[in-house]
Amino acid sequence: xxxxxxRYGNFHQLxxxxxxxxxxxxxxxxxxxxxxxxxxxxxxxxxxxxxxxTVTREFVDKTxxxxxxxxxxxxxxxxxxxxxxxxxxxxxxxxxxxxERGVKKNLTVLNTGDGAFVVTRTTRPDWASDPSGEDxxxxxxxxxxxxxxxxxxxDKAAESDSTAAKVLRLIVDQxxxxxxxxxxxxxxSAAKAVAEADAMAKILAKNPHDVTNTELxxxxxxxxxxxxxxLFAEEFAERVGxxxxxxxxxxxxxPYQAGYDPERGKQAKQLQKNLGITIGRATLSDSDKMESxxxxxxxxxxxxxxxDDASNPTGYAVMSNLMRFGDYDDQxxxxxxxxxxxxxxxVNGEGINLWVNNANQGDLNYWGYKNDRGRDPVTGxxxxxxxxxDASSQFFAQPDGAGDTVDKNSxxxxxxxxxxxxxxxxxxxxxxxxxxxxxxRDSLGHALESATTGYAYDASADAIKAGGDHRTAAxxxxxxxxxxxxxxxxxxxxxxxxxELEDSLGKMAGAYIDDIDHDLSGLGDHARDDGDFPAAYxxxxxxxxxxxxxxxxxxxxxxxxxxxxxxxxxxLYTASLLDANPPTNSANYDHGVDALSMEAEARGxxxxxxxxxxxxxxGAESEDANKSLGRSADWGKLIxxxxxxxxxxxxxxxxxxxxxxxxxxxxADFGGEVVNTFIGQxxxxxxxxxxxxxxxxxxxxxxxxxxxGVDDLGKSYDSYFSKYEEAGGKADSQQVVQNLKTTYExxxxxxxxxxxxxxxxx
Length: 762
What we know:
This protein is mostly helical. The protein has helices spanning 3-8, 11-45, 55-104, 140-173, 187-204, 213-225, 230-240, 242-253, 262-283, 288-300, 315-322, 330-347, 377-387, 389-395, 414-422, 439-453, 461-467, 473-486, 491-497, 502-511, 513-520, 546-557, 560-580, 586-618, 623-633, 673-689, 702-721, 725-733, 736-745, and strands spanning 107-113, 116-121, 643-644, 648-652, 661-665. It is elongated, with a radius of gyration of 33 Å.
């Protein structure tokens, strides 16, 4: 900092600029609020069809988001400028005060140019003739002290000025187009984040074997503290660099180092998560430096790192384990995944697998380690997609030229075909893990859940309840592909051979049960009443075709887990339709009866598939078959604890094979009496069941199983008509009860086209 620049700088002009920024921030806040309430609100309420329902709404949403980011950026810039101006004025006051004190001691401060200055002692003519022979008492030490004081002030002013400039550039560079959402209250907080990033990067610059547990704990604490800070993340990533990031984590995480320390293992586990989240945040920056960083990381993918740790892993092996956590840039994930799968196709096969083999002891995953050692990088990458819905829906998007519905292999995404039908998956479990379990296929299910629902696969019930329906035309397109693949002739074998996907497939079907019901209704692909099952997300819906919907449901019905999940979603959705259409008028009555009829058909397909598969697996009416049917009949227990929100319900799915939360559409903003009564009944049953002997296994013959299915339909019927005597009489005269029973039982236990796909047989 130049002395004269600080003393005589025009801070008035900077003050005017700050006032302009503050005014702009205030105006942008008004615009952002108005855009959210009016522009976005009206766009989402508009009854648009076709491209307006998707393209225009998406454009409006992005525009509203840009207004919000513009306000945030303007507000942050104003705060940093104001804070910096205040600091510099304070330092100017300190310098002037110091100079004034020096004058009183006959010390002069002179600017010598180029940012330098000197402090000299003032020489008076009368000192030489002073009879005492003494001067004013000022020593060179005083001059040096004043010089050092002024230099300290200038250094602080320079730091304030330079760090403000740096953070402002970083903030602006966060978004190449549009505006950054980085939000800071003052220069100090932004500058501190950057300084901490530099300090943490110095730890990673060391040989990982020389890093102490204390240093690792400090690193983890700061990464966790600043995990959502954009400036920290970008500065950290750039300072460390792609290769050093990979070699450092591999060196810390390798569990086979001599003298392995369990405490170090705990730190390594947290480091995996914290690094993943931090690097993910860094990739969200659009700066040229981060774009270059991402390209370097992808280029490192197939190459071994040239280290002694973790079996000298490839870049893919390390980075894929880090990206299991965090929100990553969509384009980076897609570019990374494209290159990874291209390489994987070259090295993956029935023989010696490059990733999972006895020579590779690069266990770099600490999360769920027993069943997933982390040697297969495709697994970690799919976990990343599972946490990044937009990236996932892009990665599995329908190819160009696909029709209204997916009905041929050429309309299926190449990545999806490879991962579901072609890739050789290897179990990567430890000796203590579940024998034969393939973590990669479970992660594929997670990726497809996020691609089809618009939520991270492990999103909480509270987040779903608050967030509402996240489905789009893009997510529906992926769902059409999934339904085509698993509803095909190969579907029963695929589901049987990929048991890790059974819960994910059930959750995906449950999330689209409204669209499935729509395609089941009518006569073939004709005579549908769109009012029965209204399109819920932007006027769009997935199109499976009538037979495609039947085939997909019939395959999922074969499996205990997927059968239960879809049956619970179906019943809840039907209940919401009954709430939305109380039989107080003719139109509502017709919609309600159609909803009951559709539940009967969907449950008929699911239940008959379940009976046939149990018979195929264990033998008709065998004890094991009856136990299997008993478990399937108890699907209602899943409903206990359901959280109902804006257009969706979050259904908890306990257990080892079906964990997490299922998102089910509901026909009203919030559940009504029928929905809440149903949920309450299942909670009561769950409480009662807790008092029973858990070793007792319910057994049902196929006849009893069907009888329970009919009884479930009867409960729906009663809940709808019980308070409406006139409507109930009309239903009775129209033989609605008999029609529902016939619809449910019409498929029978025979293997025919109406029922869908035949059971899997070894």
